[in-house]
């Protein structure tokens, strides 16, 4: 799929917002509510995947 510069920026911003929201939700639930560090590790892993996807989306346009 070919994206122009503006579309790539919007997709990357959306991926970053999703990553931050997901990290906040699972980090809060896992770390504070359930005290289960597996949730926190899952949140970090998924955050890294979404952030990596955002970086790759922007790098394709460079």
What does this structure look like?
This protein has one domain (5-61). With 62 residues, the protein is mostly helical. It has helices spanning 5-33, 37-61. It contains two helices and no strands. The chain is elongated.
Helicity range of the residues?
over 70%
Please identify the oligomeric state.
Answer: single chain
Shape: elongated
> What count of domains describes the coordinates?
1
Task: Report low-confidence residues grouped into runs of 5 or more.
Answer: none
Q: How many DSSP E strands? A: 0
Q: How would you sum up the major sheet?
A: none
Span of the ends, CA to CA = 15 Å
Order of helices and strands: HH
Proportion in β-strands: under 5%
Coarse structural class: mainly alpha
Number of helices: 2
Mean pLDDT, rounded to whole units?
Answer: 90
Keywords:
62 residues; mainly alpha; 2 helices
Summarize the structure.
With 62 residues, this protein is mainly alpha-helical.
Please outline the helices and strands:
Elements: H1 5-33, H2 37-61
Helix pairs in contact: 1-2
């Amino acid at each position: 799929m070919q994206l122009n510069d503006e579309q790539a920026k919007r997709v990357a911003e959306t991926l970053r917002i999703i990553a931050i929201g997901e990290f906040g939700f699972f980090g809060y639930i896992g770390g504070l509510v359930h005290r289960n560090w597996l949730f926190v590790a899952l949140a970090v892993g998924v955050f890294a995947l979404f952030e990596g996807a955002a970086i790759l989306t922007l790098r394709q346009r460079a």
